[in-house]
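Justification of computing resources. Each target in the renewal requires a structure prediction run like the one illustrated here; the chain below, 323 residues long, is used simply to show the kind of job we budget for.
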Amino acid sequence: MGDVAVGARSGHDGEEHRGRPVDAADPAADSAVTSGNDSGATEDGTAEQGAGGGSGDSTPRPKKPRSFWKELPILIGIALVLALLIKTFLVQAFSIPSDSMQNTLQQGDRVLVDKLTPWFGSEPERGEVVVFHDPDNWLAGEPTADPNAVQTFLSWIGLMPSAEEKDLIKRVIGVGGDTVSCEGTGPLKVNGHALDETSYVYAGNTPCSQDDQGGQFTVKVPKGYIWVMGDHRQNSRDSRYNQTDRHHGMVPVKDVVGRAIVKAWPIDRWGTLPKPDTFDQAGINTQSSASAALTVAPQGLALAGVVPVALWRRRKSTIERTR
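Resulting structure tokens:
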């Protein structure tokens, strides 16, 4: 009888557990519950999935992304700041208001002006097309545009040319130390060397103008100034016709905004504005190479001289402290 009862109990062990709870003191039962989740089960049999790598309440939920409309003002603000910085320090757009630079530039063209290199000490070079502030009322009597509020804002951040700034655009003919002269109809001479201007002077114009208002001249350009002329020689009020002003027709280098590097608009006129080869002819540059190097990058040369001295002083101080 005893053997029969034991056999019946072992064969129907699962049936007996259906009717009553498992004895918590039974080592076998306790082992059966915890063998699969030793560190992740609780007393009531619920697994703690958060501690074991699951998706429980303790896992940080991902942040909900901002809506497009909330991010749009931030993006616009960043774009405006970048545009303002680019206009101030890198590149600015300018509009051509007259025909004085034909055919290189036409009225209504948009050019991009490099404003970065002057920050590093670079000065205008012969042959470059530059934008500069009105030196001494050269634009007297010229009509002034009346932009609306939107145009004013866009010009302020550099997306449109400014209609309020009194700026001009001409070609640099002479720099500090040069002698520039015109006699008869030309050619125009720099330091005694005749320029071949057929590639940029307006077709039908002569390099020099025969008149008694300034077209015939010989001038010495002072240091820190440039002498400028328009490519449309018979239709440009440039240095020649402003020799009675306080700078005697010269443009102070400090008034130069930057070099025009690209015709950006209209698209069919897109192109660069390189320096003509005639300004690179042998003998035209009377300045020494050392002087030219100082003009291009004085800050770089100063830094090159200061750094070794600073390192030497620092090393000397370190040696004295270790003694």
